[in-house]
């Protein structure tokens, strides 16, 4: 970072150099923080993708269990109806 001669004359060499150093250090800190935030966003994207896969798997298991339950219910009702009509008929 360079200052124009006008600023250096107004501030002086040491003050201008310390101001440049201060601004440069703040920019580096902000850059480091931005990199950490970017890494967190990538981590969140990975977690989001893993969560979507886990939800899809659990939905598939739930659908299969619902189907098994439905088959069981139909079987029980058919058995009860057959028993009921066997007793009556």
In short:
This protein is mainly α and 89 residues long. It has helices spanning 5-11, 13-88.
Please provide a written account of the structure.
It is a single chain. Helix 1 (5-11) packs across helix 2. With 89 residues, the protein is mainly α. The chain has helices at residues 5-11, 13-88. The termini are far apart. The model has no long low-confidence stretch (mean pLDDT 81). It is built from two helices and no strands. It has one domain (5-88). The radius of gyration is 36 Å and the shape is rod-shaped.
Distance between the termini: 101 Å
Helical amount: over 70%
Tally of separate domains: 1
Unreliable spans? none
**Large-scale geometry:** rod-shaped
Main sheet summary: none
Q: Give Rg in angstroms.
A: 36 Å
Name the average pLDDT.
81
Order of helices and strands: HH
Number of helices: 2
Topology readout:
Elements: H1 5-11, H2 13-88
Helix pairs in contact: 1-2
Structure keywords:
single chain, 89 residues, mainly alpha
């Amino acid at each position: 970072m360079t200052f124009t001669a006008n600023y250096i004359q107004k501030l002086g060499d040491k003050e201008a150099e310390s101001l440049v150093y201060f601004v440069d250090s703040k920019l580096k800190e902000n850059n480091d923080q931005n990199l950490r935030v970017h890494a967190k966003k990538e981590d969140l994207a990975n977690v989001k993708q893993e969560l979507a896969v886990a939800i899809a798997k659990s939905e598939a298991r739930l659908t299969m269990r619902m189907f098994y339950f439905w088959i069981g219910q139909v079987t029980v009702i058919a058995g009860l109806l057959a028993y009921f009509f066997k007793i009556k008929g």
